[in-house]
Design brief:
It is a single chain. By secondary structure, the protein is an alpha+beta fold. The chain contains 2 helices and 9 strands; from the N terminus they run E-E-E-E-H-E-E-H-E-E-E. The chain is elongated, with a radius of gyration of 20 Å. This is IPIL1 protein. It comes from Calyptomena viridis (Lesser green broadbill).
């Protein structure tokens, strides 16, 4: 959606996160004992593909060759998760850094100034262009329930 707010054009974008290959997202609802401000957790699960293998007894990505135990060390888990759960603050920080580093590779970077605004749970950027036109974009992260 978009709107005008304090002489700025505000864009709000819903960004659906998709798990990488061999991973899935699992929604786990909190019980009444947990914090009220968070109603769910998204657990990242590394999927076993051993049963789909055609040749030999080579284990799949999440299994150790020595004892066939599940491993929790994929790059996704190390970068965007706390434990086995997606961490929206880590995701926001990662996307903010990605946007900032990619900005100089776009042809518009000479004419527009990018400012990453502080935000712990979304990615907020302010673009200031010619004639002091300002655009604010807010990327809000979501996981679609029932997606693979």
């Amino acid at each position: 959606s978009w709107s005008v707010f304090e002489d700025k054009i505000l864009y709000q974008l819903l960004v659906f996160l998709q798990p990488p290959p061999r991973h899935s997202f699992r929604l786990e609802l909190y019980s009444a004992m947990h914090l009220a401000e968070r109603c769910s957790n998204i657990r990242v699960v590394q999927e076993c593909t051993c049963s789909r293998m055609m040749m030999g007894d080579m284990p799949c990505f999440p299994h150790r060759p020595d004892n066939n135990q599940m491993v929790q060390s994929s790059p996704l888990l190390c970068t965007l998760c706390t434990g086995s759960y997606l961490d929206v603050e880590e995701i926001a920080c990662w996307v903010q850094n990605l946007v900032q580093s990619a900005w100089e590779h776009l042809p518009q970077w000479h004419d527009w100034q990018l400012t990453v605004l502080p935000s712990a749970r979304s990615c907020r950027v302010l673009l200031t262009g010619p004639s002091e036109v300002q655009l604010c974009a807010v990327l809000v992260f979501a996981v679609q329930q029932g997606s693979p």
